[in-house]
Every structure is written in C-alpha cells, then in structure tokens.
Amino acid sequence: MDFDSVSEAEELWYYDLHDLMRMAEERRRKSVGDVVTFVANYNVNFTNVCTFRCPLCAFYRERNSRDAYFLSIERILREVAEAYALGATEIHIVGGLVPELTIEYFEELFREIKRRWRKLTIKALTATEISYIAKVNRSSVKEVLERLREAGLDAMPGGGAEILNDEVLKVIAPAKRASEWLRVIETAHELGIRTNATMLYGHVEKPRHIVEHILKVRRLQERTGGFLTFIPLKFKPWNTKLYEEGLVRDEVSAIYDAKVIAISRILLHGFIDNISVYWVAYGKKYASALLAFGGSDLVGTAFSEKIFNSASPHDSYASLDELAHYARTSGRVPAQRDTFFNVIRYL
C-alpha cells in the first residue's frame, strides 16, 4: 500500500508496534543502509522576544521582561568564533519575531560570517521568520530569500511548521498558517535553497493530523526535491501556556514517540531519505533506542541550544564522540556529515 490518502495513512497508527518497526527498518536499510549521521553545529538564538507569543513556546519573552535579550552582530560573531574553534561546520541561526531585526541586520550578519569563516555553512531562519521579515520589509518572500542567499544563507531549518493543520494551529500557534509555511518553503526550494522539514507533535493533535502533516511534506517534496531530512520534534509542555491552561499536562508516551518515528519513515520512503531523531528532545540514550524505528540521523552537537532547554532543562550539548557512541550502541555505523548530508568522516 502506498498510503496516499490521510485515511489510509492513519491506519498505520493502529498497527502493532513491532510490525511498524519492521516496516520502518526495512525502508531505512533500503534508503540509507546502517549509517547514522550527525553534524557539528552551533545554535545562535539572536533574541527571545517575539511578537507571535505562541502558546506552545516556552522560549519567548515579552519585550519588558527581565530576561529578554537581543544579541548584537558583534556578540553573535564572538559566539561564531567560539563555534568555529570547537570544530562546528554549521551555524544554526533562529530566534524571535521583532520588527527592529530587519533584513539588513541579517544581511550584515551573514556577510560578516562568510567574510571571516568562508567554509562555515549558514543554516538560518525558519519559514515563519522569512515570512515575517518580508512583511516588515514590504517585500516578497522571493526577494527576501534572494537577498539573504546573496548575503550568505546556505540552507534553512524546518522549524515553524508545528502541525500543518490550521485547526490545530489555532490552539497552539494562532498567528501561523499551514499554507504560509508551505509557500515559503516551496519558494526557497525553487531558488535552490535546501531546507529541513519538522513536525511538532505531542500536544493537542490527533493521529490523523500527524499523517496529514507528513503527507503534505511528501507532496511538496515530490514537486521540489528540496528537503534534506524530516525531523519529528517532541513537544515539551512545561513553562508553556498550553501547560498553564491545562490543555497539555504531560509528555506523550514512548510508544507514541516510536510510532511517530516509524510512520515518518514509512510514509516518506522514496521521497526523503533521512529521518532525524532529535536527541535534544529525547535525551541521548532514548534517542539511540528510537533509531531502531527507522531513524538514520541524530541531527547534531547542538552547542548552545536554548529553545528546547526553555521548556525542559537538560544536557543540551553532545560531542561528536558521544553521538558516535550512541549510534554504535544501536548497532549502527556513526558518521559526521555536513549540512547537506555528505559524509565527512566515519567515526
């Protein structure tokens, strides 16, 4: 079965977990073999102030909050220098939505990073951020992306998608729309900017919303071929409005996590080769176990990760050697990769 419709795909949710694991692992071996990849990356979050105030987010702060911050370009460049010294090959740059951080701010930042560290890959700005910058700048999304690409943008993360269903978004992120995320990402792909795709699960969604999201990503990939990997992101409810208002009281179960990873692999087989298990959301040992459900990538070292840490404080750093260890404990071959999933070296 190709699982082309939401109703067909939703049936997978009710399969026996061992059958799902077997199906996912068969597809994983055909797509990528036994290698588990990860990148040496450093996260820069330029501000935690955000006008969207999404109920799902524990990271954002009001402008007048005591712990609100804005990073100057010079401050970010000092962080990038540290990242480069640590061996990072990728700088992951995302943050809040505020009108004073204009397109010129990002153009200057990207140009200066490329001037100082030409070989560093800049993976920056979610589709939501690009859309917001375009509105503030009174430009088209295409123009913003072209200008940022010219300044040094190499790739984009997949954040901001949450769940690509407007009824769910009304609850968890009312300022966002599924069609806008898809439109911005499709424009990026048309301009040759490769991106990731994400899905935030474990809040108020139902199984049909999960498979609907994955199928929307699959259809876009059929048209553009621009996605590098699919990353399911486990929602951490603590310190969010969703938790405070009683809409989400706890994390979803381990079985739920395993089903999400496995169904992602099954539905995206032949379309997106890489299914990433984001260890920051799961913990390293648990993430290594979830690799057995079709996962093939542990994302990266995540130096200086702040967004997930805002909801659930945890060990938010991993060395390449640690990630290699956890790949081996899952019976796989660890490999350091670049942003575009080219293997740099086996570990």
Automatic annotation (TrEMBL):
PROSITE patterns named among the record's database cross-references: RADICAL_SAM
Alphabetically ordered keywords of this record: 4Fe-4S, Iron, Iron-sulfur, Metal-binding, S-adenosyl-L-methionine
Membrane-traversing stretches: none
Pfam families: CofH_C, Radical_SAM
Annotated residues for binding of [4Fe-4S] cluster: 50, 54, 57
Cofactor section: [4Fe-4S] cluster
Keyword 4Fe-4S: yes
Binding site for S-adenosyl-L-methionine: 162
Name recorded for this polypeptide: Radical SAM core domain-containing protein
Organism: Ignicoccus islandicus DSM 13165
